Amino acid sequence: MITSPSNPLVKELVRLRSRRHRDTEARFVVEGRRPLALAAAAGVTFEQQVICTDLGGEPVVDAPTVEMSEVAFRKASYRQNPEGVLAIARHLDTSLTKVSLPETPLVLVAESIEKPGNVGAMLRTADAGGVDAVVLTGEGTDIHNPNVVRASQGALFTVAVGTAAVEELTAWLSENGIRLLAAVPDGGSAPWQVDLTGPVALAIGAEDEGLSPALLDAAAGRITIPMLGRVDSLNASTAAAVLVYEAVRQRDSEPD
Amino acid sequence: MITSPSNPLVKELVRLRSRRHRDTEARFVVEGRRPLALAAAAGVTFEQQVICTDLGGEPVVDAPTVEMSEVAFRKASYRQNPEGVLAIARHLDTSLTKVSLPETPLVLVAESIEKPGNVGAMLRTADAGGVDAVVLTGEGTDIHNPNVVRASQGALFTVAVGTAAVEELTAWLSENGIRLLAAVPDGGSAPWQVDLTGPVALAIGAEDEGLSPALLDAAAGRITIPMLGRVDSLNASTAAAVLVYEAVRQRDSEPD
User: Fold this and answer.
1) ipTM score here?
2) Which DSSP symbol is given to A4?
3) Which of B8, B9, B28 is CA-nearest to residue B19?
4) What is the pTM of this model?
5) Phi, psi (5° rounding) for residue B107?
6) Do the beta carbons of residue A252 and residue B224 sit within 8 Å?
7) Sign (positive or negative) of CA dihedral A164, A170, A174, A180
8) Binary contact (B235, A130; C-beta < 8 A)
9) What does the DSSP 8-state code read for residue A198?
């Protein structure tokens, strides 16, 4: 039973909030019953589980488990209302070669999305919309960021996630016969004027910067979500939701 | 020139972050060039403008203006990267009688959405999708919350916003011949199987609680966004985006 907030494991859990430390250790933290259960179902490797029975926690994954006092657990936890269970996992393998695709894949490409909360929200939308793979490219968030893990509510483990440089991504898309469609702020076709029933990848950039010239050049088509108001930009995760669900709509109307 | 962070105006700006104080004073803070310009264009009444030239600020709205030092402004500001201009505005009038509707209105109803960031995101989506009015009902956020103002990026001023109890809302909808459609987690029709080209109100509840029995009873139909994954719920503002843009799609295909 770990009772002290200055225990080395507590300190290690706090240090794993830093990207540099995560990258060095190749480990990250998953917290909460449902995300842990989804991660375990996805075959994620856990090295250490921590529970706090005073917070109602009990073991969820198969890993060496220690108990912490409420004070120590709250210090280690990244949540305001912790459920009393978290675990240290090995980094996910996000190489594109690990991603297996169905016959008519729907892929979401997120380029240089800085805010981890947006990446998490995009993963959640990808899960809901049955997206076959989410590929992160460009600068920005790493998927093991605690805010990505939290905001995705476990979708990080239910959706195939890849990370790749733009050249590798575009090569992978053509090898797999997937049309790349770029979301652009203006000049593209409305989402419902583009056929999304075939193998497609929907690429979304950051609100301010948009997509890189390299991705735009590689795209077979451009999509613009009509903006009928005056504020002028949609949040990247909102744009992803509109495009993904337009694909769901079109595919739902297709004969099987 | 106000230089001290303990100046009464700085203190008042900080106090206006509290709902109780806002409600007592019937005043709130709008910050940033674009939101202020949109608010001014919408006829919002400003009582006091504050600029910080060291942060690049200059007057945006027509109101008595004082200058602050950077230290004082940063204390008063709600932003991490302030643009050097903010102003105190009188509370918006959100009575439904103030909302004027076009012939075939598209209304978004948000019930008991707790997170101000979600309310702000819904306003931004409503602006983008050409929603004619957003009505907030039930418990939850007040629209003058600084996080609503910030997350809406000014959409709080470009979209007609009403607040009303459920009974008042449903009476207003029937008076205006608007069909209420309730978003529910399951058992409803897919959004694209429901005709959204007429006068409709799309009602969305909180992720965990959903819509109240009173709103569900008043609804003429139920819509369920298909969930093809395993995480099981969409963020309320994501759900709003999917539904609003399905209405935009259907209306775009209509002859004028």
Assistant:
1) 0.93
2) -
3) B28
4) 0.94
5) -115, 140
6) no
7) positive
8) no
9) S
Cα distances (Å, whole numbers) of residue B170 to B96, B160, B166, B210? 11, 17, 6, 17
Distance of CA B71 to the CA centre of its chain: 30
- Coil/strand/helix, residue B220: coil
Selecting from B228, B229, B242 the residue whose C-beta is nearest the C-beta of A242 gives: B242
Residue type for position B53: T
**What pLDDT digit, counting tens, does each position of A127-145 carry?**
999 999 999 999 877 999 9
One-letter identity of residue A67 = E
Task: For residue A16, give the DSSP letter.
Answer: T
Residues A157, A204: one domain? yes
Give how many domains chain A has, as a whole number: 2
Amino acid making up residue A122: M
Residue A2, in any domain of the structure: no
* Structure confidence at residue B254 as a pLDDT band (50, 70, 90): low
Using a CB-CB distance cutoff of 8 angstroms, which residues of chain B are in contact with residue A126?
A: 229
Q: Quick one: average pLDDT of A14-25?
A: 96
CATH number of the structural domain spanning residue A237: 3.40.1280.10
Q: What is the DSSP string of A158-196?
A: HSEEEE--HHHHHHHHHHTTPEEEEE-SSSSB-GGGS--
- pLDDT tens-digit map of B17-58: 999 999 999 999 999 999 999 999 999 999 999 999 999 999
Co-location of A85 and A184 in the same domain: no
How many CB atoms are closer than 10 A to CB A87? 27
- CATH number assigned to the domain comprising residue B68: 3.30.1330.30
Please, where are the H alpha helices in A42-136? 70-76, 116-128
Using a CB–CB cutoff of 8 Å, tell me whether A189 touches chain B: no
CB contact under 8 A, B231 and A158: yes
pLDDT tens digit string along A150-178?
999 999 999 999 999 999 999 999 999 99
Domain that holds residue B67: 8-90
Residue A3 resides in a domain: no
**Residues A40, A61: contact at Cβ < 8 Å?**
yes
For B109, the 3-state DSSP assignment is strand
